[in-house]
Amino acid sequence: MYFDRAGLQIAPELADFVEREVLPGLNLPTDQFWQGAADIFARFVPVNRALLAKRDSLQAQIDAWHAAHTGQAIDAAAYRAFLTEIGYLVPEPASFSVETANVDSEVATMAGPQLVVPALNSRFLLNAANARWGSLYDALYGTDALDAPAATPGGYDKVRGAAVVARAKAFLDEAIPGWREGAHLIAERAGGKLFKHNGLHIELVIDRDHPIGRDDPDGIADVILESALTAIVDLEDSVAAVDGEDKVAGYRNWLGLMKGDLSASFDKGGRTMTRTLEGDHEWGDITLPGRSLLFVRNVGHLMTTPAVLLADGSEAPEGILDAIMTSTVAKHDLIGSGKFKNSRAGSIYIVKPKMHGPDEAKLTNDLFDAVEDLLALSRHTIKVGVMDEERRTSANLAACIHAVRGRVAFINTGFLDRTGDEIHTSMQAGAMLPKAEMKLQPWIKAYEARNVAIGLACGLSGKAQIGKGMWAAPDRMADMLAQKIGHPQSGANTAWVPSPTAATLHAMHYHQVDVFAEQTGKTAIAPLEELLTIPLAQGRNWSEAEITRELDNNAQGILGYVVRWIDQGVGCSKVPDIDDVGLMEDRATLRISSQALANWLLHGVCTAEQVDAAFARMAAKVDGQNAGDPLYRKLTPDGLAWQAARALVFEGVAQPNGYTEPLLHRFRQLAKARHN
């Protein structure tokens, strides 16, 4: 049963949530809100549908072009001319600088780690929000980031603890030379000292009675780093939200963050623990935020949701609903009705993923205008983060930024989704390289470099974040420390990390690298032709062992992720890979794996029988990897998770832009119906 609101049919749980929890205190009458929402849907649904039809039309034309050139080497000039002729490539805008104003310092003038956290898990949300500060001692002691023997079981290991202290002191000597003499010291009190370097704070906890501090000549009991400056509350790739019930769960958690009253209770060692939001850090006249500045990621333009039905009975675009709901909820922060303040600059930060080109960016801009009008907000109160993760956006990035130039506060690269779209866009061009090899190809290097250079050319420095993608291996912190320093060195002032611990360790990089100094030299923009180079496996003579290894690798990743998505509604988790290395998996990971297999099937690198054999082999492995999960149901060919995994591959060529959401949603809805 749905409730009628201004001609819209609203799922009862959503109507109740809006009217009982969201609107009170906002000085926005219920009827006025629903009529405004109905007007927004009436205005933007046709535009949304037209732009999705344009995606399909462009893809069909690209498929036909590649089919007409089968067996021929791609002529780069002819290919670019073709993409321009069909409107895939648009003219570059004249030189401009973004006009974004009222941006918080965490976004505009600071550089540091960024967390992404699923909106449906309240405990994870609180961990991320509270990850603004983290213990360097804990991060080093509990991970492989410390090059020292592992701690012996049975309590605190003094030998490892001494190695932690030595490593932390070495970091202090490097980051703030002369710290013992007061270099970079900005505040001091009984029990601590506060330093500032490269815009980030470091707190030294001084306690000579502490078990660690009493053995330290400096009396230091801990080193606390300002870590995750920002965090993204994700309603998209890391969640399984397929109906009104799921959407309300995410919106309610976002409301709890905006009002400051979100809490989560859990069992730890037989005791019930309750987690809430941390307070600010007071240092005399200095007040430092105790929580990460929170963004919220809406879904893209593709999916619809049964949470709202339109007048013709069709499902409403989910991205339009997200824009309305997340902004309305965030108004509580703007008017100060909550316990804490999220944006001290008076802005709402929405990350918008999976936009294809400047026309879709313009739709987002116009939609946010309309939501601001509904909520009586000043123009450009709602800021936008542009995910540069689709090929048509990468190729037209300056034009996309220009379309949102009054509100853009973030651009970010995402290798996995970008690779998935790379494969799907050129699906008919030929067989692609194995996904691990794609990272070494010219197009990805051009993609990462162009993102920073174009962002800087458009004036983002000092006004917005330029971000880089996720470190996906949360148990491999030594490798992260060795490799992820490349992100600040690239001129990006933020990069994604998978955990609060990783945020604290990655924060060390922003002391080692002055990002804003690095940005001054990033002026050369890699040629578009490099970006458009398709990663084809031309002339590759595949061995059976190579094919089998790649099939198993992709099939294992698909099954390991999909079985949790379909059966348990888990949209992001640490999934063991084929080598039993835990990787943070979400839909972006699934997109590249499923498209890679679909591409190889299409071009005869492998057969359907080989793919099914790989699924059968890897189902047994995934079952074994999940043997300790009491909620896990074994994979069987007649199970929905297995069927969904196969469909993602065998129907992969036909999926819009290679996205996994349509199939995942269909099978998850079937699973929920079966178990309700």
Topology:
Elements: E1 3-5, E2 8-10, H1 12-22, H2 30-68, H3 76-85, H4 105-108, E3 114-118, H5 122-129, E4 133-135, H6 136-141, H7 158-175, E5 185-189, E6 192-197, E7 200-206, E8 220-226, E9 230-234, H8 244-259, E10 264-268, E11 271-275, E12 281-283, E13 286-288, E14 293-297, E15 304-309, E16 315-317, H9 318-334, E17 348-352, H10 357-374, E18 382-388, H11 391-395, H12 397-403, E19 408-413, H13 415-425, H14 435-438, H15 442-457, E20 465-468, H16 477-483, H17 486-489, E21 494-497, H18 500-512, H19 515-519, H20 528-531, H21 544-568, E22 573-576, E23 582-585, H22 587-602, H23 608-625, H24 640-650, H25 661-675
Parallel strand pairs: 3-9, 3-21, 9-14, 14-17, 17-18, 18-19, 19-20, 20-21
Antiparallel strand pairs: 1-2, 2-15, 4-8, 5-6, 6-7, 7-8, 10-11, 12-13, 15-16, 22-23
Helix pairs in contact: 1-8, 2-10, 8-9, 9-10, 10-12, 13-22, 21-22, 21-23, 21-24, 21-25, 22-24, 24-25
Walkthrough of the structure:
With 676 residues, the protein is α/β, with parallel strands linked by helices. Among the domains are: 135-226, Malate synthase G - maily-beta sub-domain (Beta Complex); 544-675, Malate synthase, domain III (Malate Synthase G, Chain: A, Domain 4), CATH 1.20.1220.12. Helix content is 46%, strand content 16%. The protein contains 25 helices and 23 strands. The strands form six sheets. An eight-stranded parallel beta barrel has the order 3-9-14-17-18-19-20-21, surrounded by six helices. The chain starts with a strand and ends with a helix.
